[in-house]
Every structure is written in C-alpha cells, then in structure tokens.
Amino acid sequence: MGGKMMKLTALACCTMLTGSPVWADKIFVSNEKGNSVTVLDADSLEVIHTIEGMQRPRGITASPDGKVIYVCASDDNLVRVYDAATYEELPSLPSGPDPELFVLHPSGNPLFIANEDDNIVTVVDVETRQVLAEVPVGVEPEGMGVSPDGKIVVNTSETTNMAHMIDTETYEIVANVLVDSRPRFAEYTPDGSILFVTAEIGGTVSVIDTASNEITKKITFEVAGILPEALQPVGLRVTADGTKAYVALGPANRVAVIDIASLEVTDYLLVGQRVWQLGFSPDGKLLYTTNGNSNDISVIDTETDEVTVSVPVGEQPWGVVAVKSE
Amino acid sequence: MKYLTPVAAGLCLSVLVPGVALAEVEYRAAVLRVDAPGPLPISRMDLKTDDLGFAGAELGTADNATTGGFMGQTFVTETVVASPETVEAEMQKLLDAGVTYIVTLADAETTVKLADLAGDQALVFNAGASDDSLRGANCRANLLHVAPSDAMLADALAQYLVWKKWTNWFLIEGSHPEDQALAAAYRRAAEKFGARIVEERMYEDTGGARRTDSGHVQVQSQMPVFTQRAAAHDVVVAADHAGVFADWLPYHTWDARPVAGSAGLVPESWHPAHEAWGATQWQTRFEKQANRTARDEDYQVWMALRVIGEAATRTNGGDFAAMKDFILSPDFNLAAFKGQSLSFRDWDGQLRQPVLLTAGMVVASVSPQAEFLHQVSQMDTLGIDRPETECSR
Asked: Which is nearest to A238 in space by CA: A148, A117, A111, A324?
C-alpha cells in the first residue's frame, strides 16, 4: 500500500508546498500514545505508512544520509531502528532506562541518549550497538544537543535546571550552565557560537555564548490573551542559515519566531494544540510541528512564516524528522 | 548568619566546573511531624507509614543535592516525630540548633503555634494542614503553605462538577470541626461556581472502631438508610476530613448517584497514578527509594524542600533573608509536575497549584478546568483570591 500512495504527487492542495521532486521527501512522526510512527509523503502530506510495534515512542531522529530512523521507545527501554525506505525494523540499540530524547553525532555516530529515570546520558555506538559510556548528569536528563563540530554534546536536566556540556572525546562534563526551570531542549546555531536552551516552566529561552558558557540573554514570550504560565517553550530549531530560531510554546499552541541577529521574538504562529517538537524539511523550506493534543502536525513555510496546513497523524504526536527519499 | 554553615570541604564530585572555586554552603532543614493518637482509618490501605512525609523529604533532599553538587551547596534535612505534647519542645530544639527551614506535618492549631514559636528565626512550611483559617484570619508572615487549602480542594472539585453540569449537590459533613470547615469550603465553592446544595446532612461520629471483621454487613444497611429521601440531587459531596464515613458512601447511597469529595472523585495534591508532565519520573524515583507509593504528605514535603533548593540555586548561596525574599518574590517559580510553574500567593503565603481529581486507581481530571478563566493566573480560580483574603501579613 505504501508504494501506491507514494505515487500521489500532483494533489492541488499541496503544489504550493515544495517544488516537484521526482521522489518526495518523507516525514516521520512518533506518536507517544499511538505507539507508532506515522510516515507521510512530504509532497502530498498523505499518510503512506504506519510503523507499529513500539511502546511510547518519543524522540525521533535520522542518520545524516536519511536512510536510518532512530526512535526512543521509552517504555521498551531501547532505541528502535528502522530502514527509512522499507520501514523494516533493524536491530535495536541499547539505550538505558526510559530514553526520551537523543542526538546523533554530526558524523552519524555515536548516539547520545538522555535517560530520564536514571540521571545519566548513555552513549551508544550505532554500528557495534555497544554502550560506549554512561555520563552522570542532573536529575531527569531530557534535552540533548550537539555542537556543529561534534566536540560538545549538551544535556539539559529538568529538575536540576542545568545544561551540562559533555566533551564527546572524554565523556567528561566540562561545564554546567544554570538555566530556568525544567529545561527541555538544546540547540546550537550552525556556526556553533550560540546555544539555545528552552525552559518549559521558567518560560524562557536562555541564549548561551558558547565561548564563555555565559548566558547573554533570556528570551521571554508574550501573547495577548494567553496567561504567562501557558507560554511553555519546549522544542526549538534553528534554520540552516542561522538567521531564525523557531520555538514550540506547548499549551500556548503557538510557535515563536526569533530573529537571531537581534534575539527578539518577531512573530507567533498559531498551530495545533500542545505543540511539542519541531523538524525541518531536508531543504529547510518547511518546518513541521507536532501538536500533541490535537493529534496532528502543522506545516510552516519558513520563508513567509505562515502556517500553511495541518495534517492528522497518530495519537499524541511527539517528535518529527523529515528525510530525503532516494 | 548562624543558619549558614560554610564548610571548607573539597567536593568529591568529578563533574564540577573546573577552575571555579566553590565555597560550600550548607542548607539545614527539618521536617517535624506530629503523630496524634486516634482511631485507625476505614481502609487498611490508608494506614499511616512510619516514613510518611519523611520519604518525600529524602527525595527532595536528594534532588536538591544533585543541583547543589554542581553549585557547591549541600542540603541536610532532619526528620522529627513528635506527639502533641512534645511538639513545641521539639520545635524549640530545632530553633536552638539553628535550623531555619522547618516543614510541618501537623493540624491547624499546632501549625500556628509552631509558626509563632519560630518567629523571625525560621521559615515554616505547612505541608499538612488544609484549614482555610491558617491562610485567613490566622495567617502568619513566616508561614507558607505547600499543602493545598480546603478552599482550593473544594473549588477544584466544584469546577469539575459544574463543568459536568452536576450542579445539584447533596452535602454530607462529618461532626468533627475540620469536617465542618471543609463543608463550609464546599458551600463557598457551590456559590462561587453556580452549584446548589439541595440537601445537607451531618454524619455523627459516635466513636468506636472504624474497622471490624465483617463490618460491611452493617454498613450495607446503614448507609442507604442514612442517605434515604434526600432532595433530588446529581451528586453526593462528602466532607469527611476525619475519615469516619465517606469511604463507605460509594455504592451504598440510597439513590444511584456518584460520590465526590472525601471519597469517590477526590481532590488532592498527589496520587501514585499521576503521570502527566513528567510525573512518572518522580513516581519511579520515589518508589525506588521508599519501596512504596507516594502519599500527599510525601509530595507536599518534597515540594517544601524543593522550594528551599530552588531558592538556594537561584540566590546562589544566599543567606536566610535573601532566600526568604526570593521565595516570596514574583521571580520565584517551582516545577512540581503539575504542568505549570508554581509560586506563592503574596497575600496569604499559599502555594498556587493545580489539584488532581482522583478516582480510585486513576487521575480522572486536573483542575483548574480550562473553562474557568482568571485575569492573573488560572490557578487563582482555586481557593481564596487576593480581594477575598482575610489575611493581613
């Protein structure tokens, strides 16, 4: 069935979204409650496949070549691995207990996994499937980011309220930066000069200068008609050209747009309910948002910053990654 | 500065920031629990454990210690069990020893006494008493409340019942003063949210054991008769802090109506089945450490200690005055697995917080309900709001 659906490319509603590649890109969405990964054709935004057989999938990422999909199956206590073309399940990776989020080294190996229940970051070689290291961090490690040069991996711990900078050669913590309450996500700018850390309960995004490991600014949010406690920054992505950052604001149902030059919020985009994580299309022209409480994803045009469409996926979508199809 | 004991010990944690000299600061807290004699609860599942509240203290101290390890701060928490007769002496001992953060698990009357004893020597966190007068006429400047108040609990349930359009209530209150205070909170909640109390009855506590072998035989005939011929109602609301009768109401009422309040759909601060907003991690951390599931008291003591930890983190080794100022400032916020940041109401020292509505094995809902709006914080739709307060701190 997957093959048949993939041929639907010329749907009128979607021609505005991208050019017309011969092979459409694919979007993979982890559904935390649905225990599945929904695969969509990026051109038609039709569901072309549903991968099942996992428990509580949350973090999701792809190998740099887009051929392999990794999923944190939190209640299975492992990382499940899938072939992005055939959806066949490949041998799983050990993850330590309750993996929630992870980040892949820019080279594609190893994988750094946050283990919420055990206050550690597990480092796993994706080739040999061996655990290379377990790094003790703060309470409830969650967000994971990696510097563009791959030298530093960052973990945020939700109850300790810190970003821990871990050297990827020695697996030692080299710096700790105190941020606001419940830090959820960490992401570098492409030049590696700035690290953004979102704080869900604190309601801020900390801007960390990576040379000094000092916070240079805390970005706050304000939306008319929404009480401050509902403005909860979670997922964050930076455009490939390093000019803009997008921040999912959880129960505020908005994605904030940050101009990185001025570090000011320039826009708030209304998406679905409890917007959680974000992922770019491979060409960076679109941004996909997972909307946990409305069971859909929204598509944002990153040139115009307009929300173009929302598409139903599985139950309680959590994470999203888009890959180029061969 | 006698409450701060800087210790010049080298830190054993290998994960510290290199090159940053850290003078270690120690934060000393205590949890003072008053165990009053009284009858056993209706259900043996509600029997008090020896480590009630203290297990929450252990987790809170451990959580504080991890952040502290990175910041050069250590946290020490003493746990003390007292009887109503010894509690003041025990409090004095703590004050004399220079403990400045004291968490209490006591009834309303004792809590005020302890706060007065502490004066300006210590900040007292009430983790046990829900009495509204503690937040009203009997409030104290050095007394903060992490336990939700009766008004908050009643409002949390009322919002849900009104949302459900179950607005005709049959209110049954116990005969103890704390039951009557709770019933008053339900009357207030009904008026606040547009429900009607169509019938009120009092269930007299005539003493005797609450549990006997085959006690259900009598209960099965007593409770239907007690609830017979009530005015037409949608729901039975039980106000039974003393735990005398409410647990026997569900399935025993004369009319086939749901029970809420002290049994059935119960408003409370915590429940072992609560999993939202990352709570699962808290539950597993707690259960691993305590070998049992958590009670409200454990969570409330944990919150009190996390308030201290959070203030220690943010004031970066601040002294007592700085800590106290920060805790009461608008900058303070506590993440406590309720989906939003919690803070103290400056008018009565109450921690604003969502309330779980639990139904046996599950959390059925969480209040405030989305439909009840507020101009400042939606959490302030629960309990006594600024314009209504009788507290002059």
From this structure: A148
Q: Mutate which of B333, B352, B377 to test chain A, going by most A C-beta atoms within 10 A?
A: B333
| Cβ–Cβ below 8 Å for A227 and B341 | no
**Collapsed DSSP state (helix, strand, coil) of residue B33:** strand
Q: Where are the domains of chain B?
A: 25-148+271-353, 151-268
Q: How many CB pairs under 8 A join A and B?
A: 78
Superfamily of domain B151-268: Response regulator (3.40.50.2300)
Query: Hey, do B25-148+271-353 and B151-268 end up sharing a CATH topology, with the first three levels equal?
Result: yes
pLDDT digits (tens, 9 = 90+) for B183-223: 999 999 999 999 999 999 999 988 776 666 666 777 888 99
**Is this prediction's pTM over 0.90?**
no
Dihedral over Cα of B289, B63, A316, B362: its sign: positive
Distance CA A207, CA A210 (A): 9
Nearest CA in chain A to B59: A139
CATH of span B25-148+271-353: 3.40.50.2300
The reply to whether residue A158 touches residue B335, judged by beta carbons under 8 angstroms, is yes
B248-307 residue pLDDT tens:
999 999 999 999 999 999 999 999 999 999 899 999 999 999 999 999 999 999 999 999
**B15 to chain A, closest Cα gap in Å:** 6
